[in-house]
Design a protein that fits this description.
- The chain has 152 residues and is an all-alpha fold.
- The protein folds into two domains: 90 residues, Orthogonal Bundle (Hypothetical Protein Yqey, Chain: A, domain1), CATH 1.10.1510.10; 51 residues, Arc Repressor Mutant, subunit A, CATH 1.10.10.
- It is built from seven helices and no strands.
- Helix 3 runs antiparallel to helix 4, helix 5 packs across helix 7 and helix 6 runs antiparallel to helix 7.
Length: 152
C-alpha cells in the first residue's frame, strides 16, 4: 500500500473515531502532499508524488515542528509545544524507523565505499547514495557533517 493510501486510510479512521487532533494533523499531511502534486504538475510530471517524495515531505514536517517546539519552549508557551509534539507523533507513524548512531555510521561507510568517494569533492555522490536508500530514516542535516568529517 502506498504512502498516500496509508494517510487516506488513517484520515478516514480518525474521522470515524472523531479524533480531532489526529484528524487535523492528517489533513495537514494530505494538504502538503497535494501541494507537492500541484507543483509537480506545473513541472510537467502528471504521475504525482512518489512514496520517497512523501517521506521527504513528512521528514520536513517533523523538522518544522521540532523547531516550533524549541521556539515555544523558549517563549514559555508549553501548551503550544505540547500540541506540536502530538503532531510530530502522528507524522512519525508514517515514517520508517530512524537509524541509530551506529547504523548511520555504517550506512555512511558503505556509501563512501560503494561510490568510491575519496575527497570532500565526492560528498555529493555519497549524500545522493544515502538519500536514495535511507530517505526518512536519517536526519541528513546531521549526516552531512559526519560525511564531511570522514572524507576530510
Amino acid at each position: 500500500m502506498g504512502m498516500r493510501n496509508r494517510v487516506t486510510d488513517a484520515l478516514k479512521a480518525a474521522m470515524k473515531a472523531k479524533d480531532t487532533t489526529r484528524l487535523s494533523t492528517l489533513r495537514l499531511i494530505n494538504a502538503a502532499i497535494k501541494d507537492r502534486d500541484i507543483a509537480l504538475r506545473g513541472e510537467g510530471r502528471e504521475d504525482g508524488v512518489t512514496d520517497d517524495e512523501v517521506l521527504q515531505i513528512l521528514g520536513k514536517m517533523v523538522k518544522q515542528r521540532q523547531e516550533s517546539v524549541r521556539a515555544y519552549e523558549e517563549g514559555g508557551r508549553l501548551e503550544l509545544a505540547d500540541k506540536e509534539r502530538v503532531e510530530i507523533g502522528v507524522i512519525e507513524e508514517f515514517l520508517p524507523r530512524q537509524l541509530t548512531e551506529d547504523e548511520t555510521t555504517d550506512a555512511i561507510d558503505k556509501a563512501i565505499k560503494s561510490t568510491g568517494a575519496e575527497s570532500i569533492r565526492d560528498m555529493g555522490k555519497v549524500m545522493g547514495a544515502l538519500k536514495s536508500k535511507y530517505t526518512g530514516q536519517m536526519d541528513f542535516g546531521r549526516v552531512g557533517p559526519m560525511v564531511k568529517d570522514k572524507l576530510a
